[in-house]
């Protein structure tokens, strides 16, 4: 019981009935779960009869780790997993009752898209993805195809429901399930098969659920059937952190608990152990305007701490540089020495790119969670593969990537023969190429192709060594892309033109970034231009290839985290930067930035008011990730599609900055004044932004 306050102890000690811990961020809800696992075991419950359900696999791994520290080896038998992983386990064991073989396959999102194309008779991935969204939502609401058709509101929905029926037939025929089935089918099992339900209810001595506010209706049904009438469970959650409404999560689940389990014990936690008072106040100010479902209070004894910083950046690049400078100065001041103490959080995946580039430039190790790293994208890896080969001819993985990108008629058999030969003589693939005595398995035509490739690489290496300055570097890179016909390669390999186009944009972005780094000047963060040496393209390529070693270092995990706000839920860092806190992006304005939208929130269906409430919760989640320092930045210019537009600070920034309303001053007046000030700042830059757009377009 050490390390728990009285309220936490109360929740931990209550073991024989339903329990709900409802409390704000950082109040130790997750800690209650780990300690309760230990408590249940010491009270005599077999570890194998305890299940703890977390929101992500990563959270599960962390909880397993923490439980192990508390309890030791026995913790291993506790089932700690996500709802989906629990579903897999149930289906592997008992899916036969539904006609599912134990070795059924689980389709990922891409598999589902192609199956839907087939079921709906289209080649258009976009249409298929729209069906996918609709079907997924229906499944999360517990509707099958027939029920979906019965409640369809228009022809479009009716058609989608019929496609769903054909899609389901295919899933059955292929012994496959999709992600939503991992919840829906176990529910069906528990509902329709008394023996299976009895077995699982017997098995589940106690079920614990973290992040309960983000469960959806089907997950709730599964939980209810698993715990049965005895209702031995512990759910912990915070209605103010419900941010997955767009995926079907519903706060109704919080309201249903006391109705379905009248003897529910509700525990409230009020002390926040994570953040300083300054940070907590900002969080409370932002969530304040939302309707209060359950009254809560939250205080911190960690002291006032540093004030929350508001950073107004000129552009996204500038914002990223300021973030990097902040990380460096915090370390230089001795406030934190580990990279893992820092996180940059943003709304949508695509915002990561500029931060990645700035961190790489400063050679700071980082990881991107909750989305793909820009440098992990296939097209960027292709290009980096080529660059690595120029820097180091003996880099075999890079050789293989380059020689097949694009395909130049050098086939698998040829490469295999070359590989066998190379390892026999302890040569790199590239060296083997020129060894003069290639094995007979390689046809003379293939040898010709290989030699041509080798010569091309040598030639490029020579040119890269002698190319300096942004202009020349750009010309070099564009020539090279033309030589290898990379744009065509992308369009050939990608069924959707839109995706191919976005890949090609990434390629051009990458080339811009490379060539700027060959240029002679860099802008420092204070806006002063500093002259620096021009670099050759090969030198820049060298640092780029060094970067793969940076991401290698990721393995020891002492790295800066870049994450979407959604993926940051439940986590904490000493120093947090919230980036891109612009009006239109956070809160998100529909139609304003469709790319961010589809990535971060799915299609819009709820009302604007509900939307804004969820946005507010998202901001609240972001702020409450910070332990000691928080910086919130916005940009005076931002990209909207292909245009640059003037950026405005998010309304949340002004709201955050409100002091505690203990003074006589009317907070609304102060809010107005702050907004006016921001608007003035923004309009100063509006003209500049317009000019920038004009220049960009010419
Ligand atoms: P979130 O809502 O963000 O998921 P949470 O309520 O789950 O937050 P935890 O992550 O469990 O909060 O705890 C926040 C921090 O406070 C952690 O670092 C945890 O170790 C610490 N903490 C929790 N309870 C106590 C306590 N009684 N004494 C000291 N530290 C505590
Ligand atoms: Mg938690």
From TrEMBL:
<dbReference type="GO" id="GO:0006260">
    <property type="term" value="P:DNA replication"/>
</dbReference>
<dbReference type="GO" id="GO:0005829">
    <property type="term" value="C:cytosol"/>
</dbReference>
<dbReference type="InterPro" id="IPR014016">
    <property type="entry name" value="UvrD-like_ATP-bd"/>
</dbReference>
<feature type="domain" description="UvrD-like helicase C-terminal">
    <location>
        <begin position="277"/>
        <end position="570"/>
    </location>
</feature>
<comment type="similarity">
    <text>Belongs to the helicase family. UvrD subfamily.</text>
</comment>
<comment type="function">
    <text>Rep helicase is a single-stranded DNA-dependent ATPase involved in DNA replication; it can initiate unwinding at a nick in the DNA. It binds to the single-stranded DNA and acts in a progressive fashion along the DNA in the 3' to 5' direction.</text>
</comment>
<dbReference type="GO" id="GO:0005524">
    <property type="term" value="F:ATP binding"/>
</dbReference>
<keyword id="KW-0547">Nucleotide-binding</keyword>
<dbReference type="InterPro" id="IPR027417">
    <property type="entry name" value="P-loop_NTPase"/>
</dbReference>
<feature type="binding site">
    <location>
        <begin position="23"/>
        <end position="30"/>
    </location>
    <ligand>
        <name>ATP</name>
    </ligand>
</feature>
<dbReference type="InterPro" id="IPR005752">
    <property type="entry name" value="Helicase_Rep"/>
</dbReference>
<dbReference type="GO" id="GO:0000725">
    <property type="term" value="P:recombinational repair"/>
</dbReference>
<dbReference type="InterPro" id="IPR014017">
    <property type="entry name" value="DNA_helicase_UvrD-like_C"/>
</dbReference>
<dbReference type="GO" id="GO:0003697">
    <property type="term" value="F:single-stranded DNA binding"/>
</dbReference>
<dbReference type="GO" id="GO:0043138">
    <property type="term" value="F:3'-5' DNA helicase activity"/>
</dbReference>
<dbReference type="InterPro" id="IPR000212">
    <property type="entry name" value="DNA_helicase_UvrD/REP"/>
</dbReference>
<comment type="subunit">
    <text>Homodimer.</text>
</comment>
<keyword id="KW-0378">Hydrolase</keyword>
<dbReference type="Pfam" id="PF13361">
    <property type="entry name" value="UvrD_C"/>
</dbReference>
<keyword id="KW-0413">Isomerase</keyword>
<dbReference type="InterPro" id="IPR013986">
    <property type="entry name" value="DExx_box_DNA_helicase_dom_sf"/>
</dbReference>
<dbReference type="GO" id="GO:0016787">
    <property type="term" value="F:hydrolase activity"/>
</dbReference>
<keyword id="KW-0238">DNA-binding</keyword>
<protein>
    <recommendedName>
        <fullName>ATP-dependent DNA helicase Rep</fullName>
        <ecNumber>5.6.2.4</ecNumber>
    </recommendedName>
</protein>
<keyword id="KW-0235">DNA replication</keyword>
<dbReference type="Pfam" id="PF00580">
    <property type="entry name" value="UvrD-helicase"/>
</dbReference>
<keyword id="KW-0067">ATP-binding</keyword>
<feature type="binding site">
    <location>
        <position position="274"/>
    </location>
    <ligand>
        <name>ATP</name>
    </ligand>
</feature>
<keyword id="KW-0347">Helicase</keyword>
<feature type="domain" description="UvrD-like helicase ATP-binding">
    <location>
        <begin position="2"/>
        <end position="276"/>
    </location>
</feature>
